[in-house]
Amino acid sequence: MEAAVVSASHGALGSLIGKLGDLITSEYKLLKEAKGQIMFLKAELESMHAFLKKMSDMEEPDEQDKCWVKEVRELSYDIDDSINEFLHRVERKYSSMPRGFKGFMDRSMSLLTTMNIRHQIAKELEGLRSRVMEVNERRMRYKVDETVSKPNNTVVDSRVLALHAESASLVGIEEPRDQLIKLMDEESVPASHQLKVLSIVGFGGLGKTTLANEIYRKQEGLFLCQAFVSVSQKPNIRKVLRTILSQVGFKPPMNTNMEMWEESELIRTLQNFLLDKRYLIVIDDIWEAPAWDIIRCALPENINGSRVLITTRIETVARACCAKNIECVYKMKALSDQDSRSLFFKRMFGAEEACPPYLMEVSAQILKKCGGLPLAIITTSSLIASQPSKLKEHWEHVRDSLGSSFEVSPSLDGMRQILNLSYINLPHYLKTCMLYLGIYPEDYTINKNDLVRQWISEGFICEARGTDPEDIAKSYFNELINKSLIQPVDTDYNGEVMSCRVHDMMLDLILHKSREDNFITVIDDIQDLTRQHNKIRRLSLNLDGAIDETVGRSFQLSQTRMLARFGTSLYLPPILQFKHLRVLTIEISSGPYSSELLDLNGICHLFQLGFLKIIASGRHVELPSKIGRLQQLKTFEIKGQSDLQLPSDIVHLSRLSHLIVPEHVIFPNGVSNMKSLRTLRCFDLRNSLDNIKGLRELTNLTNVEIRYFNYTSTNRDEFAAKCRELVHALGNICSLKCLLIRSSYQPVTVRACLDSWWSVPTSFIHLQSFHAKYFSRIPGWIGQHHSLYDLQLVVQDVYGDDVGILSQLPSLVHLDLHINGVPKDKIIIRGRGFPVLKHFTVACCRISYLAFEAGAMPKLERLELCFNAQGWDRYGGVPAGIEYLSGLKEIVGDIGGLYAKGSNRRAAESALWDVAGLHPGHPVSNIKLSFYYIFDGNDDEPRE
C-alpha cells in the first residue's frame, strides 16, 4: 500500500491521516481522552480528504468551495505540525536515555515530565477537534456542494526525450533562420565588417530563443569566439558578463576569483579580450534597455565582422539595441497554418498523413485556437498524446476547454489558459511536484537530483513497498519532461536528463496557482513579507543588496516547511524562527565582498530537516559544532567553502544518504558509521587511514568522488598506504555506479596505487561512469564491465591492443582518453569496434599514431582531437581513416601551439580543416589553436 503524501491541493491531509492511525496503535502512552480525540480527528479528516480529492479534479470550483478547501488545507498543516512536535518531544526524551539500570531510573524519573507532555497534547488535540468541528459546521451551514468531477486517466507517454526532440525539430524555422543569417552576412548593408547588432522581438511562446539557438548553432566555426547567455527580467549583470567571459574562452590569472570583480573590471576585461577577435554573442531575453546599455559597453567595436543577436519581448527594447541598424529588428511571427499542422501532427502521429480522417476537423479547430503559437501547440499536443486512446470525444473536450482568447489576440491570459489545461489534467502527485518548481528564480537551471531529494523531504513522494523513493521521484521528473511542462537543459551521455528549466509562461502559471493554494510564497522585496496575511508554508527569497533586518523580525515563520534563499544578499531570516523546516537551500551568488559570516548554528533544532544545501562562494559558513539532532537529514551539500569544518557528530546521522562537500575537507573519525550513504563527494585522501578503511563498510555507496593532492617525499609512504587501503575499500563496494578519482598532477605513487587495481574491482558489476587519473596503461579489467557508458582515463602509455580492450564494451557511449606519453604502437580502431560510441575525445602529443579502419565506430557523432603542433614537420599527420566514420556530425580540433613554429601551427590547423572538408558527411568543424602543450613523457624533446 502506498504511503500517504503531502500535496498542494490537499495540504498535509494524506500524511496526517496515516500518522493519526499510527498514534492510535503505537506504543505511545496516550491518555484515554487523547486517543478518543485522535480517533475523531482521523474519521473527520478522512471524510474531508475524500471531498478535497473530488474538488481538486474540478476545473473551476465554486468560490465558496474554494474557501472551505483552503480552510481544511491550512488546518491539516497545523494539526500535522502539532503531531510531529509531540512525537519529537517524546522520542527525544527516551532516545537520550542510557540503557541498563541507570536507563530504568532515568525513564522512571521522566514519567512526570512525559505525563505533562501527554496532558499538553491532550489539551492541544481538544483545541484542534474544536477547529475541525467548526470547519465542518461552516460547510454544512453554507451547504457546500460535493460535486463529483470527471475521472483522470492520464498515462505516461514513453517517448520522454523523443517528444522533446520532435518539438525541437524546428518546424517553420528555416525561413526566419536563413533570413537572419543573410542579414548578418549581408554585404550590401553599410559597414558590414563592423560590429552589427540584430534583434528578434515577439511575445512569449513564439520561439525566439529556439530561433536564436538555431542561428547560433549554424554559425559555429565561423567566429573565433561565441557565447549564448540569458538575461531575464531581473538580470544579474555581473553574472551575465562573467558567463560571456567564460564562454568566449577567457582564462583568469591564477588565484583570481572573478566573482569578486566589479562591473567595471568585468567590462574592461571583456573589451580587451574581444578587441581583436571576430565574435558572435547571443543575449537572450532582455526586458529593459538599461541592461542592454551595460552589456553593450563590454562589447568592443571592431572591424572583424563581429555580430550580436538579442531576443526580447518588447519592441522598444529591440529598437534601442539596434539603434544604428534599425533594419536589423526581426519581428517574430506566429506559425503559418501549414507549419502549425506540421508541428501538431508530427508530435501526434509522426506525420500529417497518419492522422485519421475523423480527427481532421477537430484538429483544425484546436489549431485555430492555438493561434500559431509553438508553445501552445506543443503543450496541447502533449496533453492529447498522453491519453491511451484517440477518442474524438477527448479531442473535442480539449478543443472546448481552450477558450477563444487566441482567436482575437495572443496574450498572457490566453497562454495561461492553455497551460492551465495541461496542469488540470495532471495527476495529483504531479501537480504538487510541478508547483514546487516555483521556488526557483526565472531562467534558473534546476538540478534534477536537488529537485527529487527536496520532493522526498517534503513528503510529496508515494513510497511503495520495495521501491526506491528516488526512483519514483525521478520518474515524476521524467513525466514532467515528457509532457513538455519543463524543458530539458543538460542530458548525460546515457540520454538521462540531468537538469531542466521552466518556461517563463509556465512559471507565471505556477506562481499563480501557488498563490491560490498558499503553497509557495515568493518574495523579492523584503518589505513584501510584512504584507503577507496567510501563514507562510514555503518561502522563496530572491534578495539582492542591503536588507533591513528589522523587517525580518515582524512576521511569523514557525509554520514554514521550506526556505529557499537566492540572490547576492547575505540576509537570512533567523533560523530560530523556524520549527518545522523540511528543506533549507541557500544559494548566495557573487556580490560585493563581505567579511560577514553565514551563521547556521541555529539549524540544530530543525528536527524535521531532510534537505540542506548551501552554496556561498567566497563566504565563510559557520556550522554548529553538533548536528546529531538532525536525524531526518538525508541530503547535506555545501559548496564554495574550502576551510569548512564538519561537525564532529555528522557521522552519527543515520539517515544521511547524500554527503557532498568541497575538496580539502577532512571528515571527523567514524565515517564507517554512515551506512546509509549513497553519494560521497569529495573524499580527500588526506583523511585518516581509519576513515579510508571505514569506506569498506559503506556498502550502499553508488556515487563516489575521490580527490588526492600533492604529497611530499616525507609522507610518501603514508600516502602509498592510504592508496592501497583505498583500493581494498572500494573493491568491497558492489553497488557503485559512478566512481571519479581526480587529481591535478600525476605522482608516480598515484599510478602505482591505481595500477594495483589490475584485477581487483570485478565487484564493480554496476559501474556506469568511471573517471580516473592516473594509470600507467589501460587496465584490462575495464573490459569486463559491460554497463559502462561513460569512461574518462588518463594513462601514461598505450601498448599493443590496449584500446581494443575498450572497443568491445557494448554500452560505451562516451570515451575520453588522454595519453601522456608517446604511444608504443600505432593505435588502430578496428572495424566493428566501439559499436555504440557517440563521443570520442583523444588527447595525445602525436595524433598521427591514431588510425580508423572501415566500419569502426559506426555510431560516432563527435570526434575531438587534442594534440601538439610542435614537431608537426617530423611526426605530423592527422589520424588516418577519419572518412570511414560514417555517422560523424562534428569534428573538434584543439591544437596545442606552445613551443611550436608558426609554420607547424598553420600546417596542423590546415590539415585538420582539409580532412573535415573532405569527409563525405560534411560534419560541422570547430578547430582552434590554443597555447598549451600536451606532456609527451620525453624531457629531451627539443623546444622550438
From TrEMBL:
The keyword Nucleotide-binding applies. Gene3D superfamilies: 1.20.5.4130, Helical domain of apoptotic protease-activating factors, P-loop containing nucleotide triphosphate hydrolases, Ribonuclease Inhibitor, Winged helix-like DNA-binding domain superfamily/Winged helix DNA-binding domain. Residues 192-350 form the NB-ARC domain. Residues 12-95 form the Disease resistance N-terminal domain. Keywords: Coiled coil, Leucine-rich repeat, Nucleotide-binding, Plant defense, Repeat. GO terms for biological process: defense response to bacterium; innate immune response-activating signaling pathway; plant-type hypersensitive response. Pfam families: LRR_14, NB-ARC, Rx_N, WHD_DRP. Belongs to the disease resistance NB-LRR family. This is Uncharacterized protein. Residues 439-510 form the Disease resistance protein winged helix domain. Residues 569-924 form the Disease resistance R13L4/SHOC-2-like LRR domain. InterPro entries: Apaf_helical, Disease_R_plants, LRR_dom_sf, LRR_R13L4/SHOC2-like, NB-ARC, P-loop_NTPase, RX-like_CC, Rx_N. The lineage of its organism: Eukaryota, Viridiplantae, Streptophyta, Embryophyta, Tracheophyta. One of its GO terms (molecular function) is ADP binding. The keyword Membrane does not apply.
